[in-house]
Amino acid sequence: MKFKKVLLFFYNFIMIYIPNYFVTYFPSYLFRNFYYKYIMQISIESGSSIHMGTYINRSNIKIGQNTAINRNCYLDGRGELIIGSNVSISPEVKLITADHDLQSKDFEFRKESIVIEDYVWIGTGVIILPGVKIKKGAVVAAGSVVTKDIPEYCVYGGVPAKFIKKRNKDLNYNCKWFPPFD
Hints:
CATH superfamily: Hexapeptide repeat proteins
Helix content: 10-25%
Number of domains: 1
Order of helices and strands: HHEEEEEEEEEEEEEEEEEEE
Strand content: 25-35%
Oligomer: single chain
Structural class: alpha/beta
Largest sheet: 7 strands, mixed
Radius of gyration: 17 Å
CATH topology: UDP N-Acetylglucosamine Acyltransferase, domain 1
Number of helices: 2
Strand order of the largest sheet: 2-5-8-13-16-18-19
């Protein structure tokens, strides 16, 4: 039992403490991506970047090509977190895949996947809760709280997020973005 606790301590040190208090503030994409891909085993495809200050909780995370995850985000990999290609995630976004059942007498822990498809744009300060799927080309307005799935090419906003309008379907951009020291 003691040996298991010691191993758990070192695992958490390498997989949570070091990446979230040292690696995330190191001003080099190459270094950060190396640590995330090869030490934490996060799937990050080419052209994608995780910017400084992003907190990563566990490594059950997949990120497609040319996706930018901006400063000070929270990526929760306790449940599965799948982020597509050409996705723009603005600063201070929180993607939360786990919570507790408020009706449970034992405060039961739950986890559900979050899926963000290609060409999605998530505005600053958005919170996305467990079990949500954001379909291709959707936009979530800054400061929104997403509790339910968002259809393709729709703009949603508010608390909780509601439909605002449709988005153009003719999208052909990438979010490959590597500014210096970010």
